[in-house]
Amino acid sequence: MKKKMFQLILSCLFVGMIIGQAHAKTHKIKFATLAPEGTTWMEIMNEMNDELKAETGGDVQFKIYPGGVMGDEKDVVRKIRAGQLHSAGFTGNGLGEILPDIRVMELPFLFDSTDEIDCVIEKLYDDFSDRFEKKGFVLLGWAEVGFVHVFSQKPIQSKKDLDRVKLWTWEGDKLAETTFRNLGVSPIPLSVTDVMTSLQTGLVDAFYASPLGALALQWHTKAKYMSMLRITNASGAVLVSKKMFDKLTTEQQVILKKVCKKHLRRLVESTRRDNDDAIKIIEESGVKLTPEPEDDELENFKNINSEVQKELTGKLFDQEILDKTLENLKNCRENQ
What are the tens digits of pLDDT across the range 238-271? Predict the structure, then answer.
């Protein structure tokens, strides 16, 4: 009898160990980003990963692939859908591959300040989150690349000046192509990974980027001028596939969302500071800063907003999300 009891206890302990091992299974979330090592983005991503591991006892963590080693954002979206990757930090272009409606946030000359951006995002966050989930992705937190400027070999102070440039646009980016076409440019579409080579060979002689992006990718070394005119604000966010997210326990899901949202807010604030610092560094490197156009010419630029809206509503984003964005922006401005 004692022998049978002993065997029963051993069996229970063995089953308990197996269950414990299953419970303690580590979920490694394969994460891709275009951000190079040594950037603020990677610094904060690593800190975010450290906290995630600590909060989950090491059961959930990111395996990070930086610097575009997993390809352009289109490649990353394809790899996530195929299960080769699970998560990524996307710019607006990559987000738009999944949810085109999100590009409404990057309409040209939509926002005048970061306060307006924060206000509108706060009001639309849950709406965008629901829309991403229907596409098979979970929104872990909002980020941004920053206000976008044109870098060129010649100064840009009017729409006419853009006639003379060979401007790169991100291949397949309908919003960028439409924006610059309405500004009078015939853009040259290329993958983001081909930009530096194309600048070196003269295939293109102008590009658009945030100051921090231009500095981090060293594109600024191929420009003589940077226009202080802010064409748009480039969005960003971190997504994870719903398939991977659903493998986590409810507690792990809560922790993942909480940790990511906290650190990505830090990233937004840091990116804004770094963009300001990047402008100074770019100027010190010898790139000349071209001031914003005068009032009349500035209006000529800003007037394209309505043209791009008309052209892309129903093709890139729906009327409903455009109306919500504009209405919330109006309310944010009235309450500032």
Answer: 999 999 999 999 999 999 999 999 999 999 999 9
Q: What is the CATH class of 27-335?
A: alpha beta
Q: What is the pLDDT of residues 295-333, one digit of tens each?
A: 999 999 999 999 999 999 999 999 999 999 999 999 999
CA–CA separation, 94 and 166 (whole Å): 24
Amino acid at 241: S
Task: Return the domain boundaries, the chain.
Answer: 27-335
Q: Are 206 and 168 in contact (CB under 8 A)?
A: yes
CA distance 71 to 172: 15
Alpha helices (H) in the chain, listed in sequence order: 2-23, 40-55, 73-81, 92-98, 114-134, 174-182, 195-201, 211-216, 242-245, 250-284, 295-302, 304-312, 319-335
**What distance in Å separates the CA atoms of residue 133 and residue 155, rounded to the nearest whole number?**
43
**Coil, strand, or helix at residue 110?**
coil
φ, ψ at 189 (rounded to 5°): -80, 130
In this model, does residue 15 exceed pLDDT 90?
no
Q: Which residues of 245-284 are buried (b: 16+ CB within 10 A; e: fewer)?
A: beebeeebbebbbebbbebbeebbebbbebbeebbeebee
**What's phi and psi for 224, nearest 5 deg?**
-105, -25
Task: Please state the pTM of the whole predicted model.
Answer: 0.87
Pairwise CA distance, residues 94 & 262, whole Å:
22
C-alpha span between 184 and 163 (Å, rounded): 6
Cα→Cα distances 276→31, 83, 198, 212, 247, Å: 28, 38, 27, 8, 40
Task: Please state, in angstroms and rounded to a whole number, the distance separating the CA atoms of residues 283 and 123.
Answer: 36
